[in-house]
Amino acid sequence: MTNLQVPASPWMDDELQMLADACTQFYEKECAPDYDEWEKQGAFPRSLWEKAGEMGLLGAEVPEDYDGPGGSFAHDAVIAYQGNLAGIDGWGGGLHNSIVIPYIIHYGSEDQKRSLLPRMVSGELIGAIAMTEPGAGSDLQNIKTVARKDGNHYSISGSKTFITNGQLANLIVIAAKTDPTAGGRGISLFAVETDGLEGFRRGRNLDKVGMKSNDTSELFFDEMRVPASALIGPEEGKGFAQMMEQLPQERLLIGVYAVARMERALRLTLDYVKERQAFGKKIADFQNTQFVLAECASEFTIAKVFLDHCISEHLEGRLTTEKVSMAKYWLTELQAKIIDRCLQLFGGYGLMTEYPLERMYRDNRIERIYAGTTEIMKLVVARGLLKD
User: Fold this and answer.
1) Of 104, 125, 146, which residue sits at a domain end?
2) Do 120 and 96 contact (CB within 8 A), yes or no?
3) Does the residue 276 lie in any domain?
4) What is the pLDDT of residue 102?
5) CA-to-CA distance for 116 and 207, rounded, in angstroms?
6) One-letter-per-residue 3-state SS of 150-185
7) Residue 172 and residue 257: Cα distance in Å, rounded?
8) Domain annotation covers residue 9
9) Are the C-beta atoms of 147 and 199 separated by less than 8 Å?
10) 250, 275, 316, 375: which one is catalytic?
11) Domain identity same for 341 and 352
12) What is the Cα–Cα distance from 185 to 51, expressed in whole angstroms?
């Protein structure tokens, strides 16, 4: 037990605390014992998704009319925070819950909602979103995947890469150009069920620096025919606007990940320095150790308060794109700094795979890149400051 004083979240209530406790038990019982094996396999098993569905950890924001619990992002934030606090960083449940599902809730047709959402709540459908392409990351307006209307179907051709949940997902929201001449105004989104779908092909499960248990894939669409009803929204050309409206929640989710990992790193390090000895005394007794921990704990506390402020504003519908961009870049950059400094206190053991800081050091690196790089976030903030 550490003496880390974690600021209370003003948006938490008794129901959310009960959810947090249930999440802790789920991650400890169902995930932690097998996590190293899933790291080697490069993916979580589908059975884990089904267990999460049974536990009510999928689709918290889905309304009761569609077999969901009718919660809010607060519920998803708790589920994500507890997972990362427990070290279950690689599970793509956060993307499924807070990124993919909202596209169906906010823009889907009634038929799409009734068909897809209950199965996403149960874990029968695992969600992914396919935006990034080999030649288009943050520059979404220049995607090359094309969807051509063909009677009561669309024919989709193109490829995507770095797709989280890409090996397991069977419900993929695909960004494609329905009008290749119109830039961002020509992008549409499609909700595509992939089981048995002709023209759909998965590439390799990508080998990457961290997040080894998070299946991240290439996807290929070879004149893939999907029904016209797969279009998300009442008309073509709304996809870019839909993505821009939903990206803030994605970036806030990553902020949740970052702060939870700061807390985990500090708790692990505090326990370690109280036990480990060097030169005849505990590492915790060295003044340098104390200064590093004091600085990291102070910065974590500031980060947690800022995150809670952003979550509160988001729940009230007041969080701006500029502020969530501040949160995304600053919290992920701070996460990297704190994990690095904590690893230093572990010394050589911090680099050993049997110690948790080694994996935390690898896993955190992607968060300064996906959902908008640090550099893009700074541009968003600056443009908001300078606009007339």
Assistant:
1) 125
2) yes
3) yes
4) 98
5) 30
6) ECCEEEEEEEEEEEECCCCCCEEEEEEECCCCCHHH
7) 23
8) no
9) no
10) 250
11) yes
12) 40
Do 9 and 85 contact (CB within 8 A), yes or no?
no
| Domain enclosing residue 36, as ranges | 14-125
Output the CA–CA distances (angstroms, integers) from residue 103 to 23, 124, 186, 319, in the order listed.
25, 18, 18, 18
20-44 burial, b at 16+ Cβ within 10 Å, e below that, comes to bebbeebbeebbeeebeebbeebbb
Spatial distance between the Cα atoms of 152 and 173, rounded to a whole number of angstroms: 19
Q: Which amino acid makes up residue 284?
A: A
Q: Is 250 a catalytic residue?
A: yes
Please report whether residue 7 resides in a domain: no
pTM for the structure as a whole: 0.96
Residues 197 and 295 in one domain: no
Q: How many CB atoms lie within 10 A of CB 122?
A: 16
- 167-204 per-position pLDDT tens digit: 999 999 999 999 999 999 999 999 999 999 999 999 99
Quick one: DSSP state of residue 191?
E
In angstroms, the Cα distances linking 387 to 148, 170, 380, 382 are 37, 41, 11, 9
Identify the CATH number of the domain in which residue 169 sits: 2.40.110.10
Residue with structure tokens 């279009």? 231
Pairwise CA distance, residues 319 & 325, whole Å:
10
Q: Is residue 2 part of a domain?
A: no
Q: Among all chains, which residue has been given the structure tokens 């209530």?
A: 13
CATH number for 64: 1.10.540.10
CA 150/CA 266 separation, integer angstroms:
56
pLDDT at 137: 75
Cβ pair 62, 101 in contact under 8 A: yes
Residues 249 and 359 in one domain: yes
Question: Residue 93 corresponds to which amino acid?
Answer: G
- Residue 231 is classified by DSSP as B
pLDDT tens-digit readout, 298-320: 999 999 999 999 999 999 999 99
How many Å apart are CA 127 and CA 282, to the nearest integer? 47
Do 121 and 143 sit in the same domain of this protein? no
Name the token pair of 125: 């459908």
- Rounded to an integer, what distance in angstroms lies between the CA atom of residue 159 and that of residue 201? 9
**Residue ranges of the chain with pLDDT lower than 50?**
none
Q: Classify 153 in phi/psi space as left (phi over 0), alpha (psi -120 to 50) or beta.
A: beta
Q: Quote the tokens at residue 359.
A: 């994996």
CA distance 165 to 42: 11
